[in-house]
């Protein structure tokens, strides 16, 4: 497919409630949206880099720079048949996986539309089983002002039908928070995400979490560490999950060889896109690690692509893919809804991402835009 035109949008949306983690608080969520036109097809990608470099070193500004000055020029006017060809064009750019994943997503959307199949079906092509039609999901609850507020917030999500709760923790807001939630909701599938707020010296505190029957503890140690996690793993009983540290299939291999984790949270953007995310999935399945699809507070554009990935056979654990109304009053696509009866969301079945994008609404939330033509 000849890449004829690309438009970048820097957009800002207000989250319904501030999302607070050990690395900071966010309410005005910014991201980049990218529209790609190729041979009569219009496709979309979302760059989940945000205002500040708290989770990743990438921000909306670094992603705009890397996309507009390097990645977009490298593919504009080129004939690209499949998304896995992108790696060759991007060879000259080290790092910046969130920027690269934006174009990777748009290429998966464009080529799936060309093939007349959903992105989920295209991703699932190598497997015996086709894609799942609905995927199990949970909700990620940010740090709250008090224990009472945490219990109340979690209760509201459980009432809405979510059966898996992820709680953010940080030093000083950890054991007591987990204890309060476990006491109030003895049966809910519960996990904790520290976003790298601890060190190996906190092993005994992390082992105190063993009493709460956790689904997992996510990324307790350094954001680029694999080795210390391998040292922590035998010291705790809760399954250990890596998020921030895994940027590629190679990192996945290191984690497996070192025995650094039981589970990987696959965020396709963090590993540079959906082609690489599928490789991570395959390595985990082969090694017997659990996988699930993480989230970055996506708009409907990114959410559709998360759902496509999470429909692959290895994604047996519930993902951080909540209904649109958990995040936004209004979205850039038709909203995604939770199936209350089984805490799932339907995977789109239309061609490509299978969504309708509201371009007029994107215009109203756009802070900056730029078009690139051949
Ligand atoms: O660590 O998983 C994380 C959001 C932004 C950055 C990092 C993380 C998160 C979440 C939210 O936990 C998941 C979601 O609902 O999109
Ligand atoms: Mg995380």
Written account of the structure:
By secondary structure, the chain is an alpha/beta fold. The chain is 33% helix and 21% strand. It has a seven-stranded parallel beta sheet with strand order 5-6-7-8-9-10-11. β7, α7 and β8 form a beta-alpha-beta unit. α1 packs across α3, α5 crosses α6 and α9 packs parallel to α10. The longest helix is centred in the first third of the chain and has 19 residues. The chain is globular. The chain starts with a strand and ends with a strand. The site of 2-succinylbenzoate (OSB) has 11 residues, from loops. 2-succinylbenzoate binds next to loops.
How is the secondary structure organized here?
Blueprint: E1 5-21, E2 24-38, E3 41-47, H1 60-75, H2 86-89, H3 97-115, H4 119-123, E4 134-136, E5 139-141, H5 147-160, E6 164-168, H6 175-184, E7 189-193, H7 203-208, E8 216-218, H8 227-232, E9 240-242, H9 249-258, E10 263-266, H10 274-287, E11 290-293, H11 300-310, E12 344-346, H12 359-365, E13 366-373
Parallel strand pairs: 5-6, 6-7, 7-8, 8-9, 9-10, 10-11
Antiparallel strand pairs: 1-2, 1-13, 2-3, 4-12
Helix pairs in contact: 1-3, 5-6, 9-10
This protein binds 2-succinylbenzoate (OSB) and magnesium ion.
């Amino acid at each position: 497919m000849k890449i004829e035109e690309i438009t970048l949008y820097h957009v800002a949306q207000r989250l319904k409630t501030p999302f607070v983690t050990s690395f900071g608080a966010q309410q005005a969520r910014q991201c980049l949206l990218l529209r790609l036109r190729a041979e009569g097809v219009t496709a979309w990608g979302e760059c989940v880099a945000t205002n500040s470099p708290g989770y990743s070193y990438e921000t909306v500004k670094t992603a705009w720079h890397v996309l507009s000055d390097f990645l977009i020029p490298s593919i504009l006017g080129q004939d690209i048949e499949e998304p896995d060809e992108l790696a060759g064009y991007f060879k000259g750019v080290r790092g910046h996986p969130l920027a690269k994943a934006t174009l990777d997503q748009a290429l998966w959307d464009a080529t799936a539309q060309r093939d007349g199949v959903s992105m989920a079906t295209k991703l699932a092509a190598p497997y015996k089983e086709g894609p799942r039609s609905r995927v199990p999901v949970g909700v990620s609850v940010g740090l709250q002002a008090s224990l009472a507020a945490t219990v109340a917030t979690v209760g509201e999500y459980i009432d809405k039908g979510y059966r898996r709760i992820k709680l953010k923790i940080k030093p000083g807001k950890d054991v007591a928070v987990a204890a309060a939630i476990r006491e109030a909701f003895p049966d809910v599938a519960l996990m904790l995400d520290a976003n790298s707020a601890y060190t190996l010296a906190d092993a005994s505190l992390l082992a105190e979490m063993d009493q709460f029957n956790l689904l997992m503890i996510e990324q307790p140690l350094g954001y680029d560490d694999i080795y210390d996690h391998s040292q922590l793993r035998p010291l705790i009983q809760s399954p250990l999950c890596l998020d921030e540290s895994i940027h590629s299939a190679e990192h996945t291999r290191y984690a497996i060889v070192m025995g650094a984790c039981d589970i990987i949270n696959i965020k396709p953007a963090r590993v540079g896109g959906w082609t690489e995310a599928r490789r991570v999935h395959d390595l985990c399945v082969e090694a017997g690690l659990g996988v699930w699809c993480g989230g970055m507070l996506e708009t409907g554009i990114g959410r559709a692509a998360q759902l496509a990935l999470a429909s692959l056979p290895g994604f047996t654990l519930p993902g951080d893919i909540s209904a649109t109304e958990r995040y936004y009053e209004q979205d850039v696509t038709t909203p995604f809804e939770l199936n209350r009866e089984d805490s799932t969301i339907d995977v789109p079945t239309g061609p490509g991402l299978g969504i309708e994008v509201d371009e007029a609404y994107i215009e109203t939330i756009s802070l900056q835009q730029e078009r690139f033509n051949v």
